[in-house]
Design goal:
This protein has 351 residues and is α+β, with helices and mostly antiparallel strands. It is built from eleven helices and twelve strands. Helix content is 35%, strand content 17%. Strand 3 and strand 4 form a beta hairpin. Helix 1 packs antiparallel against helix 3 and helix 3 crosses helix 5. The longest helix has 25 residues.
């Protein structure tokens, strides 16, 4: 591996592994039939905050001058009456470190707030920064399905390193319950077993080789509100796809395409003014690109991560194995009314 990536790669891997360990512990301890029946979201709230604290502590320690753009802030944990929630977060951070009692509340809150590098309405991003989704797929987390911890390093608007931890996505050989995907520009995408990535042989992830769109398989969100699934069905019909889509929560869908479990992932806008959050796609985009696939918006444009917390210059997402990408863009253009223009300057997420 290029020595330039050694430290960021190692720190990112360690950070998301710690976060995955903490979220699993919260899930096992706090998600019960009673909490599900009451639609109690406190377990995922504890896991969200603990995950962000653990990742941001690692990043702040190794790269103190590199800002972090993340989803959460600690204000809610400071509110009167939220002490039990705060204490649960602090406890799980300490457990994940295997140093019970060593984490102090004020430190944990400061680590969480380290992820607030940009105002919500910021229009520009720093030249180099990290972006984090501490738990992507909260409903999947609560129901025992797929969720992900997604961390990425961005330079000049392009993702250059991604760590995608999927604690419930079984390792390809079936020996471990989860999978960690790591990708760096020009270095490929590598899979490691979770919960202990150092205890198994890493494998190179590659997209599938499906070239006929009719033979492709979609990967879609479980939640219909996340993407226009009606349009997705029309696009599948136009492409001649008859296979049932793979449905899962979170950026685990990016992992599924990167390792060949599916060929296509679409995120079609449900509103004309909606723009995707950068932390929902940064890690996944490089994981697919470095596995040999392509990721663009629905008009075939490169994703631009330089415009604040949202992908202001992009609408929707088209991710694929690369072989069927132009055909998918054509179908999206025909169904969704975009000017996709297959082959006409459609850009990829790879350099």
């Amino acid at each position: 591996m290029n020595l330039h990536w050694t430290r960021p790669w190692q720190v990112a891997m360690e950070a998301v592994t710690l976060a995955a360990r903490a979220t699993r512990a919260v899930q096992w301890e706090l998600v019960t039939a009673d909490t599900l029946e009451k639609k109690d979201r406190s377990p995922v709230t504890v896991a969200d905050f603990a995950s962000q604290a653990l990742v941001c502590e690692r990043l702040a320690g190794w790269f103190p001058d590199e800002p972090v753009v993340a989803e959460e802030d600690a204000d809610a944990l400071r509110e009167p009456g939220h002490e039990p929630l705060r204490d649960a977060v602090v406890r799980h951070v300490a457990i994940a470190h295997a140093r019970s009692g060593a984490a102090r509340a004020r430190d944990v809150l400061a680590w969480i707030d380290h992820g607030n590098a940009l105002e919500p309405n910021a229009r520009r991003s720093p030249d180099r920064f990290w972006t984090l989704d501490p738990i992507d797929g909260t409903k999947g987390f609560l129901r025992g399905g797929q969720y992900a911890i997604a961390l990425a390093l961005v330079e000049h608007g392009q993702v250059v390193l991604g760590a995608l931890a999927c604690p419930a996505l079984a390792y390809p050989d079936g020996t471990h319950p989860g999978t960690l995907l790591m990708a760096a520009r020009g270095e490929g995408t590598w899979m490691y077993p979770l919960p202990n990535p150092g205890h198994g042989q890493a494998q190179l992830a590659r997209v599938d080789r499906v070239a006929n769109p009719a033979d492709a398989r979609f990967c879609e969100s479980v939640e219909s509100g996340h993407s226009d699934q009606g349009q997705s069905a029309q696009i599948a019909q136009r492409l001649g796809i008859t296979a049932e889509p793979v449905r899962m929560d979170s950026q685990a869908k990016y992992a599924a395409v990167a390792r060949g479990d599916a060929s296509i992932y679409l995120r079609l806008p449900t509103r004309a003014d909606y723009r995707e959050a950068i932390w929902d796609h940064a890690a996944g985009a490089i994981v697919i690109a470095e596995a040999g696939g392509r990721v663009t918006d629905i008009a075939g444009e490169t994703l631009d991560f330089s415009r604040g917390p949202r992908l202001q210059r992009n609408r929707g997402i088209v991710a694929s194995n690369g072989h069927v990408h132009d055909a998918v863009l054509e179908a999206v253009g025909a169904v969704a009314g975009t000017v996709a223009g297959a082959g006409a300057g459609a850009a990829t997420a790879r350099p």
